[in-house]
Write a structure and sequence with these properties.
Helix 6 runs parallel beside helix 7. Helices cover 44% and strands 24% of the residues. Strands 1, 2, 3, 4, 5 and 6 form a six-stranded antiparallel beta sheet that branches. The chain has a five-stranded mixed beta sheet with strand order 8-10-11-13-12. Strands 7-9 form a two-stranded antiparallel ribbon. It is an alpha+beta fold. It is built from eight helices and 13 strands.
């Protein structure tokens, strides 16, 4: 009596069969699932609960199970269906358990209707197909964007630069100011397009990363030589502090250069007075030798409650300075491709330190 009560209390449909495949016990959940009345299943072959196409194969599988009985899902890797009394089919999962009794070895089958799960899986698969189509369409659009927008923008920047050099003739003050605005706006738009295209490449896994030993001091000097004139134009001090001896990191040189250029350019842009410093520190972390490349500025700093936002896409803490709001977000993504990370320490009004951590080669 207690055993029957235990089977009835199970949340799944339960069917117990003997070696011959005869149903000895079925709980109410099983009767309701397969639309049979009370005790209609008792004494009947268990194959009656499965479509005709499964029945011949099941007889051999049942015999095999009795030779090596163990708790396991039935037909792992295959999809099973049950058949109701009215002939309708529905997807099921079955778990088998051996049951030793005085009458010999029996098999307990726990059966679950997975119609809703299968429906969800089909919807998810269809959604994934649509997502893949949308991503492919986005890639095609952005490739077109690259050609259709960058080409004329580069022409605009080139021609305005030529006019500002007065190669085409003299300019009035108003004309010079307006041409300067056009050139600045075109460069801003071109930067946004380039950032978006870089982001698409990263997210689609199309960025080729070639990790190799890279002398990080040489890369920092290269970036410093490129951006020092921009700092000096603003009246900022600019220095690079390298330790004695060369430090080698495992990185992609092109990507490392892009990250350091973004971080240093930001430091120059957001520092109205004072200085920008590039430096290298060797540190140890979690038993690994890592190198920390730091960009330190004396700019306005970042409020503590805004620090969590600086690496988010399209985030501009000070919109008046221009930019796309993508630089730090992209830099963090690129750092991840190198197995590194960018962190930020800042005090509002005192400046910021952005650190790129990479594994030593």
């Amino acid at each position: 009596m207690w055993f029957r009560a235990l089977v009835e209390s199970a949340p799944d449909a339960m069917v117990i069969v003997n070696k011959a495949g005869t149903i000895l016990l079925a709980n109410r959940q099983a009767e309701n699932m397969f639309l049979y009345g009370t005790n209609e299943l008792i004494g009947r072959p268990v194959e009656m609960l499965m479509p005709e196409r499964f029945r011949s194969r099941h007889s051999g599988q049942r015999t095999g199970y009795h030779h090596t009985p163990r708790v396991r899902p039935m037909g792992a890797g295959f999809e099973f269906s049950g058949i109701r009394k009215d002939g309708s089919e529905f997807p099921i999962d079955i778990s088998l358990s051996p049951l030793e009794t005085d009458d010999g070895l029996l098999t307990t089958a726990a059966i679950r209707d997975v119609t809703e799960r299968k429906r969800f899986e089909r919807e998810l698969q269809a959604a994934n197909v649509e997502l893949e189509k949308a991503l492919a369409a986005k890639d095609r659009f952005l490739r077109s964007l690259s050609h259709e927008l960058r080409t004329p923008l580069n022409a605009i920047i080139g021609f305005t630069g030529t006019m500002l050099m007065r190669l085409a003739g003299p300019l009035t003050n108003d004309q010079e100011k307006q041409l300067g605005t056009i050139k600045t706006s075109a460069k801003h738009l071109l930067s946004l397009i380039n950032d978006l295209l870089d982001l698409v490449k990263i997210d689609s896994g199309k960025v080729e990363v070639k990790l190799e030993p890279v002398a990080c001091g040489a890369v920092m000097e290269e970036v410093a030589n490129t951006l020092r004139p921009l700092a000096e134009e603003k009246g900022l001090g600019f220095e690079i502090c390298l330790p004695p001896g060369e430090l080698i990191v495992s990185a992609d040189r092109h990507i490392l250069t892009q990250i350091l250029t973004n971080l240093t350019n930001n430091a120059v842009k957001f520092t109205p007075s004072g200085s920008v410093r590039m430096e290298i520190a060797g540190t140890r972390s979690d038993g690994r030798n890592v190198i920390e490349l730091q960009i330190v500025d004396t700019g306005a700093g970042i409020p503590e409650n805004e620090l969590a936002r600086v690496f988010q896409a399209f985030t501009q803490l000070n919109p008046d300075t221009g930019g796309t709001g993508m630089g730090l977000y992209l830099s963090q993504k690129l750092a991840g491709l190198l197995g590194g990370e960018i962190t930020c320490r800042s005090k509002y009004g005192l400046g910021s330190t952005f650190s790129l951590t990479l594994q030593e080669s």
